[in-house]
Amino acid sequence: MDEATHGKPPPGRRFTDRSAQTRAAILAAARARFAADGYEKATIRAIAADAAIDASMVIRYYGSKAELFEASAAVDLALHKSTAAEPVRLAQEYAHTFVEHWEGGANEVERLLIRTAVTHREAIGQVQRIFEQQIKPPIMAALADDPDAELRAALVMSQTLGVIVSRYLLGLEPIASAEPAALESALRDAIRLHLTRPMHDG
């Protein structure tokens, strides 16, 4: 092996490592900037300055502010990994995963995502994707023979958003100070009702 290259990674590997580091730096800067300034006020130029790179690099890696926001506000609720095969168990897993995630300190961009979803198309799209990719699939799988499975999934989503807004964004009492265990139990029962109650009279 040539002495000049001994112990050094191949050029392609160095490029890949630098790319990954650059992407990570941009993402970290974007999360901090979006959380501090909000979606409208945060700029590509400011994010680039925080990451100590040229603004053109942000566009190169993420395309646009909207796409960068989507990447920054990525949420993995782990619900799509559920192995529950029936509604009662699924409700239990869902409630536990949700409370564990938010009580563990969901990042500020997640909070921003929900706060801005009522006014910004980008945020609305991201919330819809979370529903389509994470919340809906396990419910549809557990209720494969139920013609109302999609509506039931949407009702679960509405229950979820209600808790997020009431407890974690607005701090409305008494839900804001409820014990996590009590919150999980109540959410579990509400979700189980959405998944199992008759949807049509008669």
Describe the structure.
This protein starts with 10 loop residues before the first helix and ends in a 6-residue tail after the last helix. Residues 1-9 have low confidence and may be disordered. 69% of the residues lie in helices and 0% in strands. It folds into two domains: 11-72, Orthogonal Bundle (Arc Repressor Mutant, subunit A), CATH 1.10.10; 79-196, no CATH class. The chain has helices at 11-41, 44-50, 55-62, 65-72, 87-103, 108-116, 121-142, 149-169, 180-196. It is elongated. It is mostly helical. The chain contains nine helices and no strands.
Write the layout of secondary structure elements.
Layout: H1 11-41, H2 44-50, H3 55-62, H4 65-72, H5 87-103, H6 108-116, H7 121-142, H8 149-169, H9 180-196
Helix pairs in contact: 1-2, 1-4, 1-6, 2-3, 5-9, 7-8, 8-9
Report Rg: 21 Å
The SSE order reads: HHHHHHHHH
Domain count: 2
Helix content: 55-70%
Uncertain regions: pLDDT < 50 for 5+ in a row? 1-9
For the secondary structure, the number of strands is 0
Structural class: mainly alpha
pLDDT average, as an integer?
A: 83
Give the CA-CA distance, first to last residue.
81 Å
Largest sheet: none
The percent range for strand residues is: under 5%
Supply the number of helical segments.
Answer: 9
Shape: elongated
